[in-house]
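Morning F.,

Quick status update on the modeling queue. The single chain you submitted on Monday has been processed. Sequence for confirmation:
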Amino acid sequence: MGMPYALPMERDLWVYETKARDKGYRFVVGVDEAGRGPLAGPVVAAAVVLPLNAVLEGLDDSKKLSPAKREELFPKIQAMAHGVAVVNPEVIDEINILQAARLAMKQAVEQLSSDPDLLLIDGNQKIDSQIEQWAIVKGDAKSFSIAAASVLAKVTRDRIMEDYHRLYPQYEFARHKGYGTQLHRDLIAEHGPCPIHRRTFRGVTEHITR
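Structure tokens below.
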């Protein structure tokens, strides 16, 4: 099957999907998360199944795309088979961020309506699942399926943080999305943590007074 559009920077981002299908896998899922690093808000994961004839012009690692491009791609990716899961700060504090991210990815996969036979997972950590998995370091820059999941997770999380901005405007979450920018750290120091701050994270813990 021919490639449906030009690949950015001449990278073959179908290479893992093609290899998987050559090995007999038929239901291949890209899995990624957004929000491991922030001081506030949830971690969000997405699982996406891209047909090999998918047309998503400009799709790439979500971190390399402008907010406008991510928003443009978001509904197109949503129209494909996908799952999204959100793990809140309370759980992150209870089980740690790595385990929370793995949990979110597991839950996103479980939302798919069909049973996958292979997961392409961004990073070097597999998830708690009996499904065959390939962990791919920097996979969001190497696989279209993972890149699609990264966009879905990133946009979903950004929208959640914009909602939180309306609840807690004093922290300006719409600007930094909960990441540890100097502005955000200054606002935590000024106001103290709010209910969506990750209380076990440095930058938050030292400002907890009760």
